[in-house]
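Practice problem: NUDIX domain-containing protein
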Amino acid sequence: MSILEEEMLAVFDENHLKIGEQSRDIIHRQGLWHETFHCWIVHLEEGIPYLYFQQRSNVKKDFPNLFDITAAGHLLAHESVNDGIREVEEELGLTISMEELQPIGMIKDTILQGEFIDNEFAHTLLLIAEKFNIAFHLQKDEVSGIFTSPLSEVVRLYDKKVDRISLQCITSYNKEVSQIGVTLKDFVPHGIRYMKEVLNSIQEKGEEI
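Answer key — structure tokens:
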């Protein structure tokens, strides 16, 4: 997400009541609650849902090279959830509308790494894509590649029934990569509760289609 540290985000208490505004840098240092936009992309292939992950660029300040939500970013203090749709176009080069997204819900998500404390009210949405090989146009300083795996395999990984799964490369700046084995340490450490709620919701929506 191309947002400068000086730009202001709304600050909330744990009940999602707005209590002020602060810079993103201070929010992450103090662990203040704020809002984000998360868009997960899934494709159904012969009834099997495949989940797409972005690989964060190696120049990112936070979590370089790790696999993450297909597209996501912070909402600025003056923005609504609908404004978050820009993240999909900025990071992935996809032009879509909010009407194409299915809401999963607003989910609390906490990411901890040293002095970095990311407490998010994540407005989480799902895009069910018609094509497997989506025409992504990646923003190089944000995203280095897009990878996918059957949703069932991702669920098994987060349930710790397996230690490793394979991700298939859809597009990447590393032209030599076609498939890669990954463990949980290769993913941005979103809260397990957040991930399980997202994965369960995607499973349920996939079964409805």
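Discussion: The domain at 8-208 is CATH 3.90.79.10 (Nucleoside Triphosphate Pyrophosphohydrolase). Students who identified this feature from the tokens alone can consider the problem solved.
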